[in-house]
Design goal:
The complex is a heterodimer of chains A (456) and B (225). Chain A contains 16 helices and five strands. The N and C termini of chain B lie far apart (39 Å). Classes of the chains: A alpha+beta (456), B alpha/beta (225).
């Protein structure tokens, strides 16, 4: 269910992106066509502006449609570069209104923006990519606003409304393009920006400038939208559910359900142990008792008595095997009295000089108890095998909801961390999101440490 | 001999009762849970209570707790725990409390009728009968290592002591070790002497010897944790 939701969300964002950019590009071209139809004779420089722009905008979605490769990431900086190149070429060639363009500023910002991206990528800082492009886009926008704010004869003669709309659209595409990894702000920005730009275009085409409205209103509009966009971009990770957060929740959920599954399994195994104890084992014990009584009655008939004794011994062997099976699943003392008692019992049985310390205030969940029990059991077996006669210290602790199990023997050390028994234990512990650590130094001893959440 | 049985499984409760009655042991009452044990012991004043470990309502160690309680209230009462598994920790607890006889056997031992009846008599008489699995588990691990306090005993004497701990009579020990009853007696008095046990009646000394033995192998909880 969760996964489906995730896929659906991702799909919707993908479609939005694929739809938004061609729409914006189409709007740009439409503006141009309208401008030409209105008697605007396109200058060479303008074509130079429009063609790469349209190409850049269209290439991205197209490339993505065809190859699935997200070419628009490259197409957009290319488009931005083209625009700025045209502007810097175009403005000084006699059309420069109201003073020279601060060319160095444009170039610096542009260069910074374009260079920052590959540099950031080389350095492995993926997030820098977004910032770099934003800087480039900001540079482009600054230039455009500067042009838009100029009120001169030359520009007034041009169908400036159209040109301005193109520039407004362009800057919006560039700016909002940077936010593509944050789908929510993109959605919030691109559509209103397009609407605002188109409204402005219609206003300018339909009539001379409306008195009382500051010609700078697109600037303020954009500034407000940009501010809102940035704000949304900052807030979105908190209020919205960015992919990383969705994924982290998914990871939490999976960990929780995996632990739940393990707990169910552990509980189920204990139930099986009880079923063996109360079912088959009881029947076999009753059977062996009856065979024993029959044996007593046939004492005078040695052949029958021998047969009955054999049958009784078979039953007893079956009981023993069932008991070992049940113990392997879940030792009775663990189910009955919990981890501390079970570890004490292991210490008693081991025959080595074992001390057990530590206290547990509450019983961990069955899966955790069982895993911890087998860590101790296996470690004691290993100690008996590789460090016979050595002193062993076992410590059980609970801190902050985590169970710490520590088994240290003061034997010869040199244990293999990849040994078969340990690998099995490690898997058991890691399945509970825990960790198992072996330290074994020759002449010092061997320490097995396991930590896992108690699961409360 | 008057015996009460506490076992929640009817099949086993009736089986044990039938077996005892066939061998002229009176089963005066039965119960199915811990409080039931206290009640029938109070009401019937038996010589021995035979009790399961896992009993209702918790099906954990109710039987052990009830046995400890009944031994506190009736110090002379013999308690024989029958269980489907042996737990050294439970042995330790049972041995720490009370004066009466104590036994802890696997349920399938009941089918070895003669040995079982011997254990029943031993415990009812104030002696000790521990399952050979408890004894052998503890013993096998320690054999070879110097067992403190028992170091003076010969291998044969240790074997005899192991069998005493299991609640065997002298004649049973003789059969088991394939020696004569008089040889068994010799071994036993040698054990008493080496363990420096005070001269008293033989039954009491047997119990003391077993306790010394259990202490030495750490089964009474004193040398551990």
């Amino acid at each position: 269910m969760r996964r489906l939701l995730l896929a659906r969300t991702g799909g919707r964002i993908g479609v939005m992106r694929r739809v938004a950019q061609p729409v914006t590009a189409a709007a740009t071209l439409l503006v141009l066509i309208v401008a030409i139809a209105n008697g605007f004779s396109p200058r060479q420089e303008l074509w130079l502006l429009v063609v790469p722009l349209a190409l850049g905008l269209l290439a991205g979605p197209l490339a993505q449609q065809v190859t699935g490769w997200s070419a628009h990431r490259f197409a957009q900086p290319v488009a931005a570069f083209a625009v700025l190149l045209i502007l810097t070429l175009w403005l000084p060639s006699g059309h420069s209104p109201g003073g020279p363009v601060p060319l160095w500023l444009v170039v610096c910002l542009l260069g910074l923006g374009l260079l920052a991206e590959p540099l950031a990528q080389v350095a492995g800082g993926q997030p820098a990519y977004g910032y770099a492009q934003s800087v480039a886009a900001l540079a482009a926008m600054l230039v455009m606003f500067w042009i838009l704010s100029i009120d001169s004869e030359v520009i007034d003669r041009l169908p400036l409304g159209s040109l301005r709309v193109v520039l407004v659209l362009l800057s919006f595409v560039l700016v909002t393009g940077q936010l593509e990894r944050r789908p929510a702000p993109r959605r919030f920005l691109q559509l209103p920006a397009t609407i605002a730009a188109l409204a402005y275009l219609l206003l300018r085409l339909a009539s001379p400038p409306v008195s009382g409205i500051s010609p700078e209103w697109p600037f303020w509009c954009m500034a407000a939208l940009l501010g809102a966009g940035l704000l949304v971009a900052l807030i979105a990770p908190i209020v919205g559910q960015p992919r990383a957060q969705v994924l982290s929740e998914r990871v939490n959920e999976l960990s929780r359900t995996r632990r739940g599954a393990l707990d169910v399994q552990a509980t189920e195994l204990r139930r099986i142990e009880r079923d063996i104890h109360d079912g088959a084992q009881v029947r076999l014990v009753a059977l062996s008792m009856k065979l024993g009584r029959a044996e007593e009655r046939y004492r005078d008939d040695p052949e029958t008595a021998a047969l009955l004794r054999e049958a009784r011994e078979d039953a007893t062997a079956a009981i023993r095997e069932l008991r070992e099976l049940a113990r392997g699943i879940a030792p009775p003392v663990l189910a009955d009295r919990g981890l501390e008692a079970a570890v004490q019992s292991l210490a008693h049985r081991s025959g080595a000089d074992v001390t057990v310390s530590g206290r547990l205030q509450r019983r961990p969940l069955p899966a955790v108890e069982t895993a911890a029990y087998f860590v101790v059991a296996e470690s004691l077996t290993n100690a008996a095998k590789h460090a016979p006669g050595a002193r062993v210290e076992i410590r059980l602790d609970e801190r902050g909801g985590d169970l710490f199990v520590d088994i240290t023997d003061f034997g010869p050390g040199g244990a293999d961390p990849a040994g078969g028994g340990l690998t099995g234990l490690r898997q058991r512990v890691e399945a509970l999101d825990g960790a198992l650590h072996l330290t074994s130094r020759a002449g010092v001893g061997t320490q097995v440490e396991a930590v896992m959440s108690c699961g409360w | 001999m008057r015996v009460v049985i506490v076992e929640d499984q009817a099949l086993l409760r009736e089986g044990i009762a039938a077996l005892l009655q066939e061998n002229d042991i009176d089963v005066v009452a039965t119960a199915e849970d811990g409080p039931g044990l206290l009640r029938i012991v109070e009401g019937h004043k038996p010589d021995l209570a035979i009790c399961d470990v896992r009993l209702p309502p918790t099906f954990t160690d109710e039987g052990i707790r009830a046995a400890l309680e009944v031994r506190r209230r009736h110090p002379g009462l013999g308690v024989l725990i029958l269980s489907q598994y042996v737990e050294p920790a439970y042995t330790a607890e049972l041995l720490q409390e009370g004066e009466g006889g104590i036994g802890y056997l696997l349920k399938e031992r009941v089918s070895e009728v003669r040995t079982f009846l011997e254990a029943v008599r031993q415990v009812a008489g104030g002696g000790t009968a521990l399952d050979r699995e408890v004894v052998s588990t503890l013993m096998s691990e320690r054999r070879g290592a110097a067992v403190e306090g028992l170091g003076l005993l010969s291998a044969r004497e240790l074997e005899a002591l192991e069998l005493i701990a299991q609640g065997r009579s002298n004649s049973a020990i003789a059969r088991e070790l394939v020696i004569t009853p008089s040889a068994v007696e010799k071994h036993i008095s040698s054990i008493f002497a080496k363990l420096d046990l005070p001269i008293a009646d033989d039954d009491h000394r047997r119990v003391l010897a077993v306790l010394a033995y259990l202490r030495a192998i750490g089964a009474d909880g004193s040398s551990k944790s």
